[in-house]
Amino acid sequence: MLVAALGLAGCGDPLDPLLEVTGPTMGTFYSVKVARPPAELRTETLRETVTAVLDQVIAEISTYDPTSELSRLNADPTTDWVPVSAELLDVVAEGQRISELSGGAFDITVGPLVNLWGFGPEHRDGTVPDAAAIAAALERVGYDKLALRAEPPAIRKARGDIYIDLSALGEGQGAARVASALEARGVTDYMVAIAGAIRVRGHNAKGAPWAIAIEEPTPGRRSVHRIIEISDGALSTSGDYRNFFEEGGQRYSHEIDPKTGRPIAHSLASVTVVDADATRADGLATALMVMGEARGPALAEAEQIPAYFIVREDAGFRVVSTAAFQRYLRE
Ligand code: ADP
Ligand code: MG
């Protein structure tokens, strides 16, 4: 929801052929652009490919679909191994790697807390839960309560009431899977955006790298903070300025600190991450967001993650970007 993908077609410039489809998905939107498409590819075929892939990803990993593979795993009280699809296992495994990297700031078992605070599928008007309810939910949280097996793919929960939430990876996974499907159809130049998760390859219809806008992290307003150019890779932004509720003058974000059981409370307004893999970029952006303006940049620098942080100040914003991000900042 946090990054706008720009067309940037200048008036009068010669343009190569461009196919474009947009629509709703995952409670947000998708936007797919294909430059210089294979001769036989039509807009309608492109739309069918994109929506079929996204529907498939939802059927695997969405907690908003009670019949999804993930929802069935969440509802299953067993602590035995549960066979899962390789696709679901892959996303869970990515989440576990990011948990380890972030020292548990990122945690896909945070679901009970997300739901308690009203940011889950049974979205309700935000109110602050009482301390006992937070403590009870925290008992169920911890990425070390999940075991993964590759052959054959299976997941085992240490408690029957573990609830996995892959929302922080879902948009990235959608973008990655749409990108693979396009490549399988011979597409070489594309931009796939699922809200703030973007995967690009090749060049736009002007033959230039794809241009992606990082938004100004201001609630209720959409304006461009900065344009990033990238021709092969993924970019994802997480922020606290769109999905939140307010009570008693305090803002409560949908990103939850698994250590405290409470929404993050710091001055980091948004984080943008570049990575080869869209699912990982999506998760890393959330992880760094949860870590905040001190620990986030320190981890990203140490791990050589290209990351761009916008920190809220009394008057305006302050930007911090890692050494690995500098190549994307050439004007
Ligand atoms: P957005 O793209 O909307 O900013 P994110 O990719 O940052 O969203 O993911 C936020 C979602 O991730 C939350 O709505 C929640 O479902 C889940 N989540 C919240 N806190 C955490 C956390 N600490 N670790 C992993 N997932 C989280
Ligand atoms: Mg994310």
What features would you describe in this structure?
Mean pLDDT is 93; it is low at 1-5 and 7-11. The protein is built from 7 helices and 18 strands. The chain has an 8-stranded antiparallel beta sheet, with helices on one face. The chain has a 3-stranded antiparallel beta sheet with strand order 1-9-10, with no helix packed on it. Strands 4-6-5 form a 3-stranded antiparallel beta sheet, covered by helices on one side. The chain has one domain (1-331): T-fold (Roll), CATH 3.10.520.10. It has helices at 43-61, 69-75, 86-101, 111-116, 131-139, 167-184, 278-302, and strands at residues 3-5, 18-25, 28-35, 82-83, 146-149, 154-157, 190-194, 197-201, 210-215, 224-230, 232-239, 244-247, 250-253, 256-257, 262-263, 268-275, 307-312, 317-321. The structure holds adenosine-5'-diphosphate and magnesium ion.
The helix tally amounts to 7
The main pleated sheet reads as:
8 strands, antiparallel
How does the helix and strand content classify structurally? Answer: alpha+beta
Can you list the ligands bound to this structure?
Answer: adenosine-5'-diphosphate, magnesium ion
CATH superfamily: ApbE-like domains
Number of domains as seen in the coordinates: 1
Overall pLDDT score: 93
**N-to-C SSE string, H for helix and E for strand:** EEEHHEHHHEEHEEEEEEEEEEHEE
Helix content: 25-40%
How many β-strand runs?
Answer: 18
Kindly, what is the distance between the CA atoms of the first and last residues, rounded to a whole number of angstroms? 25 Å
**Order of neighbouring strands in the sheet with most strands:** 2-3-7-8-11-16-17-18
Strand fraction equals 25-35%
CATH class wording: Alpha Beta
Unreliable spans: 1-5, 7-11
Shape: globular
Question: What's the alpha carbon Rg, rounded to whole Å?
Answer: 20 Å
- Could you say what the CATH architecture is? Roll
